[in-house]
Design goal:
Blueprint lengths: L7 H22 L4 H22 L12
Protein backbone atom coordinates (compact mmCIF):
# COMPACT_ATOMS: atom_id res chain seq x y z
CA UNK A 1 0.00 0.00 0.00
CA UNK A 2 1.43 3.36 -0.97
CA UNK A 3 0.86 6.41 1.19
CA UNK A 4 0.37 9.82 -0.40
CA UNK A 5 2.53 12.03 1.82
CA UNK A 6 0.81 15.18 0.59
CA UNK A 7 -2.69 13.92 1.24
CA UNK A 8 -5.13 15.03 3.91
CA UNK A 9 -5.16 11.72 5.80
CA UNK A 10 -1.37 11.65 6.13
CA UNK A 11 -1.30 15.18 7.51
CA UNK A 12 -4.20 14.43 9.86
CA UNK A 13 -2.29 11.39 11.07
CA UNK A 14 0.70 13.63 11.85
CA UNK A 15 -1.43 16.10 13.80
CA UNK A 16 -3.18 13.35 15.74
CA UNK A 17 -0.01 11.54 16.74
CA UNK A 18 1.84 14.70 17.79
CA UNK A 19 -1.14 15.97 19.80
CA UNK A 20 -1.52 12.61 21.55
CA UNK A 21 2.15 12.56 22.48
CA UNK A 22 1.74 16.12 23.76
CA UNK A 23 -1.18 14.94 25.89
CA UNK A 24 1.05 12.34 27.50
CA UNK A 25 3.73 14.98 28.13
CA UNK A 26 1.18 17.32 29.71
CA UNK A 27 -0.10 14.46 31.86
CA UNK A 28 3.44 13.79 33.09
CA UNK A 29 4.51 17.42 33.61
CA UNK A 30 1.36 19.05 34.97
CA UNK A 31 -0.37 16.06 36.49
CA UNK A 32 0.97 15.05 39.84
CA UNK A 33 -0.99 11.85 40.14
CA UNK A 34 -1.39 8.52 38.48
CA UNK A 35 -4.82 9.45 37.10
CA UNK A 36 -3.53 12.33 34.98
CA UNK A 37 -0.75 10.15 33.61
CA UNK A 38 -3.16 7.34 32.71
CA UNK A 39 -5.51 9.82 31.01
CA UNK A 40 -2.63 10.84 28.75
CA UNK A 41 -1.73 7.22 28.04
CA UNK A 42 -5.35 6.33 27.16
CA UNK A 43 -5.46 9.36 24.83
CA UNK A 44 -2.20 8.22 23.23
CA UNK A 45 -3.43 4.67 22.67
CA UNK A 46 -6.85 5.84 21.43
CA UNK A 47 -5.26 8.07 18.82
CA UNK A 48 -2.96 5.19 17.88
CA UNK A 49 -5.99 3.02 17.17
CA UNK A 50 -7.61 5.82 15.13
CA UNK A 51 -4.40 6.16 13.12
CA UNK A 52 -4.35 2.39 12.59
CA UNK A 53 -7.90 2.38 11.27
CA UNK A 54 -7.26 5.43 9.07
CA UNK A 55 -3.74 4.74 7.75
CA UNK A 56 -2.99 1.08 8.53
CA UNK A 57 -0.21 1.93 10.99
CA UNK A 58 -0.49 2.26 14.77
CA UNK A 59 2.11 5.05 14.78
CA UNK A 60 2.60 5.62 18.49
CA UNK A 61 5.81 7.55 17.84
CA UNK A 62 5.04 10.52 15.58
CA UNK A 63 8.54 10.89 14.16
CA UNK A 64 8.43 7.39 12.66
CA UNK A 65 7.35 7.24 9.05
CA UNK A 66 4.27 5.34 7.93
CA UNK A 67 5.30 2.40 5.78
Amino acid sequence: MTIDKKGFRYRLSNVLSWSALGGVAVGIIIGNGFGEFMTGVWLWLSVGVINYLMMGSLRLLPWRDIE
